[in-house]
Amino acid sequence: MSSNVHGRERVKASEELVRKRREREAVKIKQYNDLVQQCQEQFRNENYNHETLSLTTRILEMNPDYYTIWNTRRLVLLRGILVESPQSLNDVEQNRTTYKKELDLFMQLIRINPKSYWMWNHRRWCLETMPKPNWPAELGLVEKLLSLDARNFHGWTYRRYVVRQLRKEAKEKEQDEKIVRSEYDFTTKKINESFSNFSAWYQRTRLLPEIVHNLSVDKKNAIAKDELYLVKEAIYTEPEDQSAWLYYRWIVGHVPDPIQFIGAFKLTSSPLVILIFDDDVSFVSAPTMIEDKTEDTVEGSWLPVGRNSSSSTSTVWVYKPKTANSSPATVRISSSNLMPSTRSKATLTTSLERPIIKIPADDVSATCLARIEERLKTDHWTPSTKRSIPVSSISSQCAWHTLDHARLLKEEIFTVRELLEIEPNSKWALQTLAHFINQLRLLGSCENTDDALAEVISIYEDLAKLDTYRRHRYRDASK
To answer: Maximum Cα–Cα distance for the chain, whole Å?
Structure first.
């Protein structure tokens, strides 16, 4: 390794310096462990007093990420420091002073680690526990913190939390809309300061659909065009930063991928048939199982097998024929029967019919299927009368504007191609071009679908050579 780091010559510490440093660290570690032991002992003895609280303060000053001590501190406050039901003005003032000290402690410790989950959680607890918290002051505080570190996602998460509280307190609709608009303007300010502020772009995705909700179609589409202008400024200025590219995709919208039916399989040692999909799905009614010779429908029981035993959706569905001597050879699923579990997947455009593939069983698979077969004796899926799952059509896009999706994709493909003439090795530009072309293909609006797919694969092959660190990801994306 080079001895020159960031233009400065690395100087090897002498053995004496290393020894002294280790001695100092050993003293600090002993002090820290002694404090933790004292605090734990005090807590075990139910000494919920200022002495125990002081011990937690000293520990947190040395290690603000010690979440157990934060929990201990809150219990000490609740059980021994705060007046549970303040009756007098003195009680109210005592509690107010205690909460103020806690909020001040946060300001002291945040200088040590501004990205500590536990400190931010403690501040939220204080504000939610104390009477009449000053939410406008909290908004001002977090704005000041974000001026020091504009991309601190803890600060942005906390800001969203504060805004939610302010909106709860808003008494009139106009006041609520003003808060939302103010947040939108704040994201604009932060984005103009730095196009690489991912949190500001993300916050914008949360606000825009609400801001335009009651506007006319023309006004919504005009705002969408303004957003496209802003994001194009960002990608031309910083083409290698991912933040604006991700927002760009969000503005253009997403064509949901159609559900992929991987196949139907049957182990030679079991009567069960396994259906596998590429995402969680549900059925309006059971798929049709067909016998080979007679082509009769074979009745049976169905069960979704997933992480949640009570769920009606799964990537894996298991079928058991009603009679032991029945052996279906084909499964048929109608296009209107299969339901995706999220809007990222589209319903089928045509019905599916697949042969059931027989595969040899191993001990592990046989054991798992035996358990499922046992469960099917007392439990099975029944069709729901409600279509509670959001269904996407192949034309779904960004829901808050109505710009023609095919035309929009073609225009943005042209834009990205122009940028690639200037920045031919821009990884994010290449990824976005492949994404947009594939979206246009899924939408069915390509002049030549085969040529479009070939170009997408070619782009990912180029990316695998250009960015070898992520070559496996690009190869997976090209499949």
So the answer is: 90
What stretch of H or E contains 161?
helix 153-169
Q: Is the pLDDT of residue 5 over 50?
A: no
Residues of the chain with CATH 2.60.40: 257-375
Q: Give dist(CA 164, CA 176) in Å, integer.
A: 10
Whole-number Å distance between alpha carbons of 333 and 287: 5
Q: Which two tokens stand for residue 10?
A: 């690395």
pLDDT of 2 higher than 80: no
Alpha carbon distance 340, 283 (integer Å): 9
pLDDT for 392: 41
Residue with tokens 């509280």: 165
Residue 3 pLDDT more than 60?
no
Which tokens belong to 471?
């070559």
Q: Is the pLDDT of residue 20 over 70?
A: yes
Q: What is the pLDDT of residues 276-285, one digit of tens each?
A: 998 899 998 8
Q: Cα(14)–Cα(379) distance, rounded to whole angstroms? A: 71
d(CA 92, CA 85): 9
CATH class of domain segment(s) 28-217: mainly alpha
CA distance to 135, 462, 465, per residue, from 450 (Å): 57, 18, 23
Classify domain 257-375 at the CATH topology level: Immunoglobulin-like (2.60.40)
Which residues make beta-bridge pairs with 273?
A: 266, 319
Closest CA to 463 of 423, 428, 438: 428
- Contact between 236 and 326 under an 8 Å Cβ cutoff? The reply is no
53-56: list long-range contacts, CB under 8 Å, 24+ apart: 53/77, 53/81
Residue 329 near residue 248 (C-beta atoms within 8 A):
no
Cβ–Cβ < 8 Å for 252, 348? no
Which residues of the chain does CATH 1.25.40.120 include? 28-217
Residue keyed to tokens 């992520």: 470
- Share in percent of the chain as helix, strand, coil (round to 5): 55, 15, 30
Structure tokens at 115: 């990205």
Show the beta-strand stretches assigned E in 195-299.
Answer: 257-258, 261-267, 273-283, 288-291
152 DSSP 8-state letter: -
pLDDT at 10: 59
Note the pLDDT tens digit of each residue in 415-453.
999 999 999 999 999 999 999 999 999 888 999 999 999
